[in-house]
Batch of 2 targets.
Target 1
Amino acid sequence: MKNSIQTSLILFLLLFAGCDSFLDTVPDNRTELDSREKISQLLTSAYPDASYALTANAMADGISFRSGLSPRAGYTEYQLNEDAYCWRDSPSTNGDAPSGFWNACYSAIAAANHALAAMDAAPNQEQYRYQRSEALLCRAFAHFLLVNLYAKTYDPDRFNSAPGIPYVDKPETKVLVPYNRSTVEYVYARIEEDIEEALKNLPTESLFKVSAYHFTDKSALTFASRFYLYKGDYQKVIELTSRIVPVPVRAANGNVPATDPANVWAATYFAAFKKWPSNISEIGTQFRMASNKHNFLLRETYSRLSRTWTCQYGHTYATLPSSTTRNITGGYWPFASFYNTNFRDAYYLGKFLEYFFYTSSNTGYPMIMFPFIRAEEALLNRIEAEIHLSQFDRAINDLNVYFRQRSGKEAANISSDYDETAMLLTQTKINTYWTASLADNFLTQYNAFGAAAWDDDKMALMLTLLDVKNAEYAQEGFRWFDVLRYNIPVYHATMSGQVNLLQPDDPRRMWQIPEDAVNRGLEPNPRN
C-alpha cells in the first residue's frame, strides 16, 4: 500500500491543519476542505483510475491461445496478457496489473476518507448529506472490488474467516501505518455499513454536471444490489433493483409486451448496440459516452485494454458472441465483431476506444473510459436473485425483457428485429436448450450454492443467466467474478498444446497482494 499511503499523506499535509509544528500554521497557498465545492472536487479522485479488465479477461474461461500471434518483447500489454493467462503473479505495477489496481483502489479510498473527515469537522452537517453518501459509496465500492479480487470468495452459507483486505476508514497521517487483513466476513460487514448509511441520502443525477462520473441513485442502487447478490440476500436484491427497473407483466401470448414499462426502460437504458453503426470506431465512441444512459458509473482509467485484442491469448471467433452467433432464443446477438487478417484468430467487439493523453510532444499515457457499472446489471442482478429464490416465472419475464434488446432474427445484422413469437423464452424452451448438460456441468460438479441438489428448471435458468452475463460483458472482465462465485473451472491451452486447469480451490484465483504491501506486513496469498 506504499503508493496509497504516500498519496494519503500528501493529501493530508496539503488539506488539513494537524498535530505537529508544520501543521500548526496554514500557509496562504494551502487548500482547506471548507466548502462543498472543494469537497466535491476531492471526491472526483475517490474512484479508481485503473481497471481490472485486462487481467481478469485473460484469467477467465472462454479465452484461448490464438494461432498466428506471438509474444512481443517489451510490450506491457503482451506480458500482462501472458502472465494472466498462465495465472502467474505479474511483476508489473501499471494500472492494468493487480498491484496497479490495488494502488488505484486505495488511493480512491484515501480521497473518500479525507472528504469524510472534512465533512465530519464541518459545522453544518446537513449541507453535506449527499456528498457524504457519495464518499461512503466510493469507499465501499473500492473495498468491495479489492476483497473480491484479492481474497477468498465470499460464501453466503458459511462464516467467511479467510483473510480479507485492510478496510481503511480514516485518513492516514503517517507513512508507516500498521495494517492487517482482518477477515472477509469483517470486510463485508464494513462495506454493508457504508452502503446502508449511504442509501439514506442518495444523490440524484441532477446534482452533477456529468452524472455518469459519480455515484447517483441508479448506480448506487445497482452497486448495492451487486453487494447483496454476492452476500446472498436475494430478496433485498429484488427490492433494490425494482426501484430502478419496473417489474414486467406477461401478456396473454406469453411474452412481455413491447409497451410494458420494463421494456420501455430497457429500450431507454440498455447500451444500444442495435442502433449504433457497425464500425469499430463508432461503437467504441458510443460505448464510452457519458451521455449514453447505459453508463451508470464511468471512469477515465489508465489502460492498454484496447490493445489486447491483438495479444496472443484472447477470444477467437468460436468464443466471442457476435451477430453471427445464435443465443438461446434462436436469434443472433447484436454485437459487431472485428477481425484483422494481420492477427489471425484475434477477434474483438470494439467496446474500448483508446485515447492518448500526451504529457509531452511524443510521450504520454493510453487511456480508456471504463464502465464500472452499466444499466443492464440492474436487470441481470434481479434475474439472478429470482432464480436463487425459485421465482422462475418472474425470471423468465425478465429474461424476455433482456432479449428484446439483445436478439435479432438475421445473422450479421446488428440492427435486426426481435421476433415476438419465435424468440419467446419459456421454461420448456430453456430446459430443452440445456438438455445435454443439465445433469453434468460445473454447477453439479463443484456444487456452488448447493447446485447439485437443484431441479432441472433452476439449473437451466441459472446456466442461461450465466451464459447471458458472459456474452453481455465480453471483454469487460466481469466474467471473472462469476468464475469465482460459481466455482467455474478454467481450462487454458498453451502454444505446445498442453491444457492447464485452474480448479475452484486453486489459490491462484486470488490476486496476489502487492510486494510493497507484503513488505509492510500484510500476509501474502498462498501459491501452493
Target 2
Amino acid sequence: MKVCAEKSPVDERAARQGLVFVFLAVLIYSIIHVGFRLLASNVLGEDDIIDTILVQDLRVAYDAFPRQPPLYDWVLWGVQQLTGTGVVGFLLIKYTALIVSACLLYLISLRVLKDRLFAILSVESLALIYQISWRYHEGFTHEVGAMVAVVLTAWLFLRLLSYCRIIDFVLLGLSAGVGFLTEPAFGVFYLSLLGAGALQPSLRERFVRPAFLLSLLIAAVIASPYVWWVLSEPHRIAALFRPTYDYAGDALSGLGDALRGPIAYLSPLLFILPLVFPRFIFVAWEDLKRAPNKSPKPDLVQLFLHTALFALGFCVIGALLFAIKGFAVHVLMPLYLTSVVWLFSVAQKSHGSPLEVKWFGRIAIAIAVIALIARLANMFVLDPVCKKCRWGIPYDKLGVEMQMRGFDKGTIVSIDRELAGNLRRIFPDSKIVTRRYPKFTPSGAKLRSGKVAFVWGTQLSDETAKTYMGNLLPVGRSFEEATLLRIPWRHIYKSDGYRMSEWKLLIIDMDGAHGKAP
C-alpha cells in the first residue's frame, strides 16, 4: 500500500492571496446584506420562526421535527445566549456559514483545478444559483449547517487523499459526525463522496485503510445521541421516510423530483455556463461518457462528477424504494453544492479566450447586484413589490398593545408560528407555547398560573382557536371575550393604515381566572 505525501499543486503564496480575496469579497457581500436587513426590519420569517420557538429548550432533538437533526438548534441556542432572541443571531450564523463555505469551496476548487482564477470563479458562481443568491437570504436554517459540513468534509477528504495521515482520518470523522447532525441529505452526500472515491483504485487505496475504521467510529459516536433518540420511538423512524398511502403515485412523483433535482438546484448557472463557454456542452458530455479512472494518478475532477452522479442515484433509489418525494429544492444543496467544482473544470477546459472568463465574471456580479436591488425593494418598498411582505408586519406594535393591556411577562399561547416566533423576539422572558405547526410546549411554561396570553390572527377563526387552544382555557372563559386588535402598516410613500393586520388577544390571569377578561 502506497504512502501518501503529495505536494500542493499550486503556489502557496498565490493560493493565500486568492483566499484573502475570496474572504474579503464574501465578507463585504455579507456586510451589505446584513446591514440592509437590519435597517429594513426586525421581523423573523420563514424557518427562523420555528427554530426560535424550539430553542426555548436545549434538547437532544425535537419531536416537532423528528427527521431534522438538532445541530442548528444547538448552535442557535448558544448564539442566542449572547445576542438575544432577535434577528441578529440568525444573521450571525447564516453569514458566518456563507463566508466559511465560500473559503472552503475556493480551497477545494484550487486543489482540483490548479488554477486560482477558476477557483475564484467557482465561488463567484454561487451568485448564479438561485437557492443561494436569493433563497439563502430569505430563509434557510439547518441547510446552512449542511452547507458548511459538505464543503468541510470534501476539503478534509481531499487532504486525506493527499497525505493519508492519522490526523486526516480523525478530522474527516469529526466533520462527518457533525455533518450527520445537520441534515439527512448530508449522509447521502457522504456516502456519495466515498462511493465516488472507491471507483478509482488510486483513490481507494488511499482511504480504504484500517485508520478509516477509526474515522467511521468517530463519526458514529458524534451522531449517536440523535440516532439513538430516533430509534427509540417508532413514529420518529417513520418520520424519516414519510410513510405514504399511495406508494406508486408517490414513488413516481419522487422519481420526477429526483431527476430534476440537480437541474433545479443549479439553475440558472447550468444554463449560463454553455452560453458563456461555447464548447461547454461538448466537453461536459465527454466527461460524462468517460469510464472511471484506472490510472495510478488520481482524477479529482472525476471524483466530484461521480459524487453528484452517486447522489442522483441515491435520490432515485429513495424515490423508488421508499416513495420519498416533495422535498424543497434547497434541501438538495448538500448533494450538489460541490458539483460546481466539476462544472468549472468543464468551463476551464472549454474556454477559448480570456473574454469568456470576463463575461462570466460580469454576469455573476450583475446578477448579484440585481438580486440585492430586488431584495431591497422587497424589504423597503413592500407593496406593490411583494405580496405577503412579511418584513412589514407590525409585530412590534402588537407587542406594545399587549403590554398596554397588562401583559409584560408570562406564557403566550398561539396557533400561528410566524406570530409566535416574533412574539418570542418581543417577549424574550416569556414562554411561547404553540399548538399547531409546530406543536411545542417549552419547559417552564405555566399554563395554570400567572398571566397567559392567547393570541391569533383573524385569518384563523375563533372555532379554530377553540379547537387547538380551548382545552387550556379555565372554566367559564371563552375566546369570544378576546379583544380585536387592528394595527396599521407603515409604507415609505403610502399613508399609514393603507394595510391593516388584525389579531385576537385574550389575556387571562390564571391566579384570578374567573375575573373579567382584559
